[in-house]
Give the backbone structure.
Amino acid sequence: MKLKLRLQLSTMMFLEYFVWGAWYVTMGTYLSQTLQFSGVEVGLAYGAVSIAAMVSPVFVGMVADRFFPTERILAFLHLMGAVVFLLMASSTEFTGFYALFQLYAICFMPTVALTNSISFRNMSDPDTNFPGIRVLGTIGFIVAVNVVSFSGWEASENMFYLSAACSVVLGIYSFALPHTPPKDKGEKVTISDVLGLKSLSLLKERSFLVFFIASILICIPLSFYYAWANPFLNELGMENAGSKMTLGQASETIFLIVMPFFFRRLGVKKMLVVAMFSWALRYVLFAYGDLGPTVWMLYVGIILHGICYDFFFVTGQIYVDNKAGEKIKAAAQGLITFATYGVGMFIGSYISGEVVDWYTSTQSADEITRNWESIWMIPAALSAAVLVLFTIFFNEKKKVQMPEEVSA
C-alpha cells in the first residue's frame, strides 16, 4: 500500500471519529445539567442516533452506492452536518434541539459506512491494511473526548462547535480523497436488499433466533452507558470524566487484539456469556462505586467496556458470518446491525430516560438529586436476565470458526 494512500485514509478516519467523539460521550451531561432536559428527553436525543442508524443503510444502499462518487457524498454530508450543528449549539428548547439533532444524526451516521467504503475500495489488500487504518479512528475519538474534557467543555455547547469545525475540515478534505465512483451504478437495488431482509430465513433456526432476540435485548441496558455514564461521573465530581471514559476505548483496542486467544478457548457461546456477564457487572460496579475508597469500581466499570463491546459485537459478527451463506452474508450483517444499533438501542435510550426520571427528585431548579445506585441496578438486572435466558436457550452445535483476518 502506497504511503500517500495510507496517509489519506488514516487522516480521513482520524477526522471522522474525532467529529463523533467530540459530542457523543459528553452530550448527556450538557443536556441534563446545562439545558436541564428531563431523562426522557436525553434518552430521546440519544435515540435519534439509533433512528439515523436505521435510515443510514437505506441512504447508502439506495443513493450513495448508485448515483454519486462516495467522496463527494462524504463531503456534502459533513458540510451539511456542520451547518446543522452550528444552529443546534444555540438551541435551548427540546423540540428545536431534537429536530436539529435528528437531522444532524441522519447526516452523520451514513458517513461511517462511507469512510469504510472508501477505504475498502481503494485498498489492494483490505484484510491486511484496514485494521491499521481503522485504528486511527479510535485514536481520533479518544483525542476528541480528551480535548473536550480538558477544555472544560463537558457541560458546554462548545463541544458542538468543535465537532462542527472538524466536520468542515473533513468536508473540504474529502475532495482530496481518492476518487471512488458509485459501485452499484445502473444496478437495481431494493430496500429489502439494503436492510438485509433476505436473511430473515436464518431466524427459522432456533440458535440464530435466540441470538437475534438476545442481541436486541442486550442493547437496551447498553444504552444506559452511552447516555448516562458521563452525567453520572460528573455528578459524582470526577475530574475530567470524559477523559477517564476513554479508558474504555483503550480497553476495546486491547481486547480486540487478544480476542483470538479467548475465542479459540471459549467458543461463541461462552464469549457471548462473558460479555453479558461483564455488562451486568459493570452496572453493579457503577451502582456501588464512588470517589472514595471504592473509586476503583468506577475505573473497572469503564475498562470493562472492552470486553462488553468486543466479546459481544465482534463475536456476534463472526457468528453471523459463519451462519449465513455466501449469498446473504452482507444481508445478515445488515440485519443484525439494524436490530442492535437501530431497534435495540432506540428502545434502550427511551427506557433509560424513563428510569432516570423515575429516580430523580427535584427540590428546585438548581437542586436535582438522582439515585444512581437504583438507576444502575436496572440495567444490571436487565443484563442478568438476558444472560440467563441466553444461557438456557442458546445451543449452537456447529463449531464457529474465526475468520483469518481477525485471528491473524
Remarks:
- Residues 1-188 form a domain with the Growth Hormone; Chain: A; fold (CATH 1.20.1250.20).
- The chain has two domains: 1-188, 196-408.
- The two ends are 18 Å apart (CA to CA).
